[in-house]
Automatic annotation (TrEMBL):
UniProt keywords, alphabetically: Signal
Residue ranges, compositional bias (Basic and acidic residues): 1-13
Top-level taxon: Bacteria
Transport recorded as keyword: no
Region (Disordered): 1-21
GO molecular function, one term: cysteine-type peptidase activity
Domain Gingipain intervals: 450-745
InterPro entries for this protein: Caspase-like_dom_sf, Gingipain, Gingipain_N_sf
Name of protein: Gingipain domain-containing protein
UniProt-listed GO biological process terms: proteolysis
Length: 768
């Protein structure tokens, strides 16, 4: 369901919900529980985090992007890509000079990612950088850590290796007088060491599938999978498997060390995607390691330990299989993560140029002997991220030597080649930095009580700015005398969402920030721009044009953007959306709103048309239509009582012998002026059971536009990347009624997915 605008007529017969200012109304979006009761929240004294805490608004930041080292697809793993899709980065002198940063002592340079400082290696280690100087760091592409706050519980995020929204991480370089994190040169002399090199270490291979989005836990109702818009258990990247197509992953050469008493441990995380319970086998090669019963749509994790090394094939390879004991093509499941831990030698295949691994804490030093790691002549370094040291590996023939001191904690280590040849893609150099000075929303001049979140694509219509015109109207007496402000979605994403492309947490954090930190309490939020659910290809070229302002979840819910937390579905601040993709559509909507509210501001004697109500009952099955009639009779009794005194006309689609006459009567009622049209019955994204699919074909008295309640399947299913939306080649029902010039409606409540009988009941209850 969608509400297009947030301000009803002050003289409308509809009451606003308790706790909501009389000049605002609400948007209803969530699938499983939709209410119109809002609570005004005063700023709380307790500390809140909004993801903008890292920003010093007096500074300039220099932004650049870090992307995966290789294409991520299929059952991606840190075994197929030894550097786990990350790589060494450098910012050379020339790039720093272009922004005037070479005049700054290198000790004052600071690097941040996702609000956290990143340790860097600088050459030189102190003073002013020369022309051969650089900044060096291990660059990590975006992962799922920024998605964790979307879930009700962190344990519901199974595959946290990959972000659901973008693989690109943004880093910010700045200056900071003080102590900054540094990686420094480690002093060692491995060829003179008295230590004996270890023969092996325990290594974990992580398989994190990237085949499909798992939409998470569901309830099966009469063969339909029903999900909430909240991020549920298991939701995220996974591999979709049917019961006759097992999950099989070949690990290839493992370099396993078998002359030890150490054993293998293995685990996997999966979720049933069928309305039955099934027992699943976990196999290494042809050996069944164990079984587990998965219950319907529930997630589960399975751990096996003390697996003998003999399970590894004689050719040093292993196949991991997750399958049904008896294949069943009707069963579906999702595999989200697999881990395999075993004793590994310090050996390689002569071509590996990056390898990330972990060594346990050690009270004594360690002598590391790496055999056949990238046998090219390029230098090799070992980075100890934990202890922030950088060691130049010493080569003797096909062997690299590094000596490490004792470490009180486990150490995350990266062995990498240093070769700046672009074609080899071993080290990436940053060629451009983008200066960023952020808007400080703690300042009163940047705060308002009517918040319009929009996209720059909508700010031009034949040289005029319709979004700012909307702001100006809402700030006028006729528009409600709000302190209306426009906020750019890109700036909000960068400040409140770590600049993860189209991440919905940014809008929620910004709205939370506005409630807790603004000197004036927000009364309404308007999302100006079309949105999309997140389950699209990350490389889809239509994202920027059709997902202008993101929504929350799949199915979509704008309400959850304004919710207080992941445990509630009720928006704290009323929120609505205009699903425009051009400035012209924004202007058409604004013109319609101005005309609509001008009529409502006129003499109250002319407002009787708002008491006119149409109840339209669709459907061709009496088993469905009969209960709908019962509901609609209850709604009629409520709205025709003395508090409202509405005049209701009922129209039934089933076995209607007067279809033509009734369609004409409906159209005449719309032309005279109707306060509410309430539809309950079958629908699709583009059609009702009544001839109301195209508001452009209907005649309206200027400004007399109805509130439209559509309780039918998919009537508002516009949260996609359908290219037919361009040039309005295909509009959903809700888009047609909102965006049609001078016709349709200014305020709609449409269903996004499946029916929910409580929707109209809640709306009617709050009217009286």
């Amino acid at each position: 369901m969608r509400s297009s605008d947030l301000r009803p007529a002050e003289k409308s017969f509809c009451h606003t919900p308790p706790g909501v200012p009389p000049t605002t109304t609400t948007s209803v979006t969530s699938l499983l529980g939709l209410v119109l009761l809002f609570m005004c929240m005063a700023p709380l004294a307790n500390a809140q985090t909004f993801r903008n805490e890292w920003i010093n608004y007096s500074k300039t930041y220099y932004r650049f992007a870090v992307t995966p080292a290789a294409t991520v697809s299929g059952a991606a793993s840190n075994h197929a890509n030894k550097g786990d899709y990350n790589m060494l980065y450098r910012i050379p002198y020339a790039t720093l000079q272009s922004q005037g940063l070479t005049a700054v002592p290198v000790e004052q340079l600071q690097l941040l990612r996702n609000g956290v400082e990143v340790p860097i290696y600088t050459f030189p280690a102190s003073g002013i950088m020369g022309t051969d100087g650089y900044i060096e760091f291990w660059g990590r592409a975006n992962d799922g850590s920024a998605d964790r706050d979307l879930y009700r519980s962190a344990i519901n995020q199974v595959n946290d290796r990959w972000s659901m929204f973008s693989d690109t991480a943004y880093y910010y370089l700045s200056t900071n007088v003080g102590s900054n994190l540094r990686i420094t040169d480690g002093v060692h002399n491995p060829l003179a060491s008295s230590l004996v090199p270890d023969s092996f270490f325990m290594h974990t291979i992580r398989i994190s599938p990237r085949n499909t989005r798992n939409l998470g836990f569901a309830i099966n109702i009469q063969g339909k999978e029903v999900r909430s818009a909240s991020f549920e258990a298991g939701e995220g990247w996974a591999e979709n498997r049917f019961g006759n197509s097992p999950f099989i992953y070949g690990l290839g050469k493992l370099f396993a060390f078998k002359n030890t008493s150490s054993t293998i441990s293995a685990s996997y995380w999966a979720q049933g995607m069928s309305n039955v319970n099934k027992t699943v086998e976990f196999r290494l090669n042809d050996s069944i390691i164990g079984t587990r019963t998965f219950r319907r749509y529930n997630t589960d994790s399975v751990f096996y330990s003390n697996i003998p090394l003999s399970r590894i094939n004689s050719n040093d390879s292993t196949f991991i299989t997750v399958r049904l004991p008896v294949l069943d093509g009707g069963y579906r499941s999702m595999v989200s993560k697999v881990q395999f831990t075993y004793p590994r030698k310090f050996e390689f295949d002569k071509r590996t140029t990056a390898f990330e691994f972990v060594l346990p804490a050690s009270a004594t030093g360690k002598l590391l002997k790496f055999v056949n790691f990238d046998t090219s002549a390029a230098p090799k370094i070992l980075i100890d991220e934990t202890n922030r040291k950088r060691y130049q590996a010493v080569r003797v023939a096909d062997t690299l030597w590094v000596e490490l001191p004792a470490s009180a904690t486990a150490s995350n280590l990266i062995l990498t080649t240093v070769d700046l040849t672009p074609a080899k893609n071993i080290v990436r150099e940053i060629a451009q930095l983008t200066p960023r000075n952020f808007t400080n929303y703690a300042l009163a001049e940047n705060q308002g009580d009517y918040l319009i979140i929009s996209n720059q694509r909508l700010h031009n219509n034949n040289g005029n700015d319709p979004v700012d015109a909307y702001r100006a109207y809402r700030s006028s007496v006729a528009g409600g005398s709000y302190q209306a402000k426009v906020y750019d979605i890109e700036d909000i994403t960068e400040q409140f969402g770590y600049n993860v492309f189209k991440h919905p947490i940014a809008i929620r954090n910004f709205l939370r920030y506005s409630r807790y930190q603004f000197g004036i309490q927000p009364k309404a939020v308007l999302l100006m721009g079309r949105g999309s659910t997140y389950d699209y290809s990350l490389t889809d070229t239509n994202i920027s044009r059709l997902n202008l302002v993101p929504t929350w979840g799949q199915p979509a819910s704008d309400n959850l953007l304004a919710a207080a937390d992941n445990e509630t579905i009720t928006p704290v601040t009323p929120i609505g959306r205009v699903a425009a993709i051009t400035g012209a559509e924004v202007q058409d909507y604004l013109d319609k709103v101005i005309a609509f509210e001008a009529v409502q501001a006129s003499d109250t004697a002319s407002h009787l048309w708002q008491k006119e109500t149409l109840h339209l009952i669709g459907g061709n099955d009496p088993y469905i239509v009969d209960p709908i009639k019962g509901y609609m009779q209850k709604y009629q009794a409520r709205i025709t009582d003395t508090l409202v005194g509405a005049n209701v006309q009922n129209f039934l689609r089933l076995n209607d012998p007067n279809t033509s006459a009734n369609n004409a009567a409906i159209q005449q009622a719309v032309q005279r002026g109707t306060g509410i049209i309430s539809y309950f019955g079958h629908s699709s994204a583009t059609s009702f059971d009544f001839n109301l699919n195209d508001p452009a074909s209907l005649n309206y008295t200027p400004g007399r536009l109805p509130v439209f309640l559509a309780n039918g399947c998919k009537a508002s299913e516009f949260f996609d990347l359908n290219t037919r939306r361009y040039n309005q080649a295909q509009l959903t029902l809700s888009e047609r009624f909102v965006l049609t010039k001078n016709k349709g409606s200014c305020r709609i409540y449409f269903q996004y997915t499946l029916w929910h009988f409580a929707i109209p009941r809640c709306i009617y209850r709050e009217m009286v």
